[in-house]
Amino acid sequence: MRVLITGSNGQLGSEIKELYTKYDNIECIFKDLPELDIYDADSVNSLISDEHINAVINCAAYTSVDKAEENVEIAERVNSIGVYNLVEALDKINGKLIHISTDYVFDGNNLQPYKESDPTCPISVYGKTKRAGELAVINGKIDAVVIRTSWLYSTFGDNFVKSMLKLGNEKQSLNVISDQVGTPTYARNLAKVCLEILSSSNKENINKNGKIYHYSNEGIASWYDFAVLIMEIGGLDCKVNPIQTKDYPTLAKRPRYSVLNKKKIKADFKIEIPNWEESLKECIIKLKQ
């Protein structure tokens, strides 16, 4: 199977680069800007045809949540129109798609982990454009899955873990929000899931019209909890102070609660999910090597 990885220089795409050689029946073709802009439908069609692509893992996304509030058109191009272009191109070759979405499609008013069937109600431009991307997949006619994830971090790129480690080395104390709750997710774990879905009998569960799944690491944390453990594992003597969302205003609203229920993906694809604390330790150890 020849698999196109879009947005391949990001956190998830970079993790897939490190892992895919372990899967004998998968050959990955990695593309990112400026080589491939998924907003350019002609380029998408030509690449998928010329490279004889059988499937796509779409890691391309405009993920700057606050900047999206001021750059609506750019967010729409990448997060929704670009996804539609991939769906249309794959429809022509009967190809498969794994599309990555986000917990930000929810408003955060739940009191229990969100199921795939729960109503969406995004409260930011980022969330709205990502939901539009989901609908492009769901309304298509290809074999596809949408995987919603949350609070992604990695040894690659810019993310909360690397920022906290840097600041923890520079400062004696930090203020971190304690009233937004979700689950940190190690991109390496998600990369493995994407590859396993395509590489085995699991791929038979990739259904027409985009079935939605939730994937994050196990457990629940606030950003404050996340930061405290980063400092602990990183061996940093930096005090983390809990603050409320109202004390740290941002352009975009964030869900107060975005824990994801993962029973469906575990049942359908027979996967085991690590706890977020274990995965965080694994990532920080790798960063120190």
Mind explaining what this structure looks like?
- The structure is a single chain.
- By secondary structure, this protein is α/β, with parallel strands linked by helices.
- It has a domain at 2-152 and 187-217 and 260-274: Rossmann fold (3-Layer(aba) Sandwich), CATH 3.40.50.720.
- The chain is built from ten helices and twelve strands.
- The chain has helices at 11-19, 41-50, 65-68, 72-93, 125-138, 160-170, 187-199, 223-234, 263-269, 276-288; strands spanning 2-6, 27-31, 55-58, 96-102, 143-149, 152-153, 173-177, 181-182, 185-186, 211-214, 221-222, 239-243.
- The strands form four sheets. The protein has a six-stranded parallel β-sheet with strand order 2-1-3-4-5-10, sandwiched between helices. A two-stranded parallel ribbon has the order 6-9.
- Helix 1 links the parallel strand 1 and strand 2 (27-31).
- The radius of gyration is 18 Å and the shape is globular.
